[in-house]
Amino acid sequence: MNDVGMGSIRTIQYDPFPRIEYEGRVERARRLMKEHAIDAVLATCEHNLRYFIGEPSTTPQQTTRPRFLLILSSGNPVAVVPEGIDQFYKDTTWVKNCRSWPSPNPKDEGVSALAGVLRELLPEDAKIGVELGAESRLGFPAGDFLRAADAIKPRTFVDASDPIFTPLRMVKSPLEVGRIRTVCGLVSDAFEGLATKLRLGMTEREACRQFEFECFSRGVEKTSKIVGVSGRGGYTRPYGVPTDKILSDGDVLFIDAGCLFDFYWSDFDRHFAFGAPDPHTQDAYQVVWDATEAGIAAAKPGIPICDVWSAMSAVLNGSNNRGKATNIGRMGHSMGLWMPELPSVQPDDKTILKPGMIINIEPSTSYPSYFDGLPKLMLHEEVVVVTETGSQLLTSRAPRKMPVVAI
Q1: For the sheet containing 264-274, what is the strand order?
Q2: Within a domain: residue 11?
Q3: Conformation bin of residue 237: beta by default, left when phi > 0, alpha when psi is -120 to 50
């Protein structure tokens, strides 16, 4: 990768993934298709299109002009796309076998074209896998899906998310890990010096815009999800867009950063104290920092991901925590071309960790405010990749003590 300067904005040049990367993904999909007796796979959502063909458009899914990729048991994949997009695919992706229809056409937006290809290329008893499982979605309207299902009978659509899409995308290739490593490193650098750029009297929006500028100046391509919440003695929730609330002495600012580089995500957070943090906030910060350490140490190949949850839970439920553990549904997840992705760091998720998996370590606790006793939240997040022997941080570790913004 090379750097190109644009004033104060940095652009990082990179080579696209080679064709062999995508062909390998298709072949792995075919092995899973055979294992689960699925005759073909139809990718419709933007993340799966990017996974299999390197879809380069920033807006591949729209309310009109859906796109489909059909992976058969042998031969080249077939793209079924609107007119104009077919040439775009031939020019910018490795997929050259395209069928098309005139678009936009709200009365028949690709349904007849798709059904015709499926009837032509697949036998009547074919099972066609699509995105119907957990944490997935179709890339075209549900009504059109039902019309297509009716038009291809007796062929049937079945779920391909759980048996094919999810296990394929769960284990990242070295090239994918490289993209995630890059974006996590850029965002880590942006967080590193942010405290010196913040000041008392800023609003949450101003602080988060400063952070976004720090990201762009280092080479981040998009800041797609920036959460910024604050409160005196801590914050009460990990969700929400930054507001015009003024940051005052005693406030804690929580920034959770979802940023993109070549469509691959980062997702982790940092805290900033405006003035010296109060004793309760300091204690909660340290407890959750220690729980994060335990989660990082526990992430190893061959263990179920629920063991990572147990390691963090043991710290959060220890005597050093004046509050109580809270998992907000889980204590982490994965990410890649989308965020979040499966698996989840939950006590009932038995997914076995494998080298190449990305795990967001995300413990949290609630604790009583030093000022009024009302409950506050403390949540940390780091990103690791599972290796052959353990795990490796892709983020720069949060400091042991909360950064302080000078008053």
Answers
A1: 222-232, 251-261, 264-274, 404-405
A2: no
A3: beta
Sign of the CA dihedral with 169 first, then 175, 176, and 181 last: positive
β-strands 68-72, 332-333: how paired? unpaired
Domain count, the chain: 2
Q: Which of 336, 258, 265, 263 is nearest to 57 (CA)?
A: 263
d(CA 145, CA 88): 24
What three-state secondary structure class fits 127?
Answer: strand
Same-domain pairing of 121 and 252: no
Residues of the chain with pLDDT under 50: 4-6
Residues 257, 111 share a domain: no
What DSSP letter does each residue of 182-239 carry, written as one string?
HHHHHHHHHHHTGGGG--TT-BHHHHHHHHHHHHHHHT--EEEEEEEEEEETSBS-S-
Token pair 């104290």 is found at: 273
Look at residues 169, 192, 220 and tell me which one is the last residue of a structural domain: 169
Residue numbers of the domain that contains 134: 19-169
In a domain, residue 8? The reply is no
Is 314 found in the same domain as 205? yes
Residue recorded with tokens 């980062």: 266
* pLDDT recorded at residue 66: 93
Collapsed DSSP state (helix, strand, coil) of residue 88? helix
Q: What is the pTM of this model?
A: 0.95
CA 346 vs CA 67, 284, 306: distances in Å = 34, 21, 5
pLDDT digits (tens, 9 = 90+) for 39-56: 999 999 999 999 999 988
Please state whether 280 falls in left (phi above 0), alpha (psi between -120 and 50) or beta: alpha
CATH code: domain of residue 145: 3.40.350.10
Reported in sequence order, the residue ranges of 83-121 that DSSP labels E, i.e. its strands, are 98-101
| 258 and 112 together in one domain | no
Q: Are strands 40-43 and 127-130 parallel, antiparallel or unpaired?
A: parallel
